[in-house]
Design a protein that fits this description.
alpha/beta, five-stranded parallel beta sheet
Length: 128
């Protein structure tokens, strides 16, 4: 697989954004944009229209669920994968209802996270 799209990584922790970026670079040469909260994510999405968004649930200023709701309302069909440290069934269900295409715990081992992201990208983008 060679994924070369634009990805917006939204997380209030810079080391998580870097880690997710490293995983994505194993899948190709994507253009990676970053945001530290939901408010920044909305601005970045409006400006760049990324192919994929990877977004934390719990962030200051505007959380990922609120940002997901706005992105999905304004851009139906946007591909958003939610990331979280604490995944409760209610949160996962709410995110999927709001349009998230997948949900990944941040403590997922690197190989498993790579596979989840690879599978998600393969499912939504014609590669090769």
């Amino acid at each position: 697989m060679e994924f070369n799209g634009t990805v917006l990584i939204v997380d209030d922790e810079p080391h998580i954004r870097k880690y997710i970026g490293l995983i994505l670079r194993k899948l190709g040469t994507p253009t990676i944009l970053e945001a530290a909260n939901g408010e920044e994510a909305l601005a970045a999405f409006a400006q760049h229209q990324p192919d994929l968004v990877l977004m934390d649930v719990n962030m200051p200023i505007m959380d990922g669920i609120q940002a997901l709701e706005r992105i999905s309302a304004e851009h139906p069909g946007a591909l958003v994968v939610m990331l979280t440290s604490l995944a409760t069934r209610n949160v996962v269900e709410r995110c999927l209802e709001l349009g998230a295409v997948n949900f990944v715990r941040k403590d997922t081992p690197k190989e498993a996270m790579t596979k989840v992201l690879s599978d998600t990208i393969s499912e939504h983008f014609a590669t090769g």
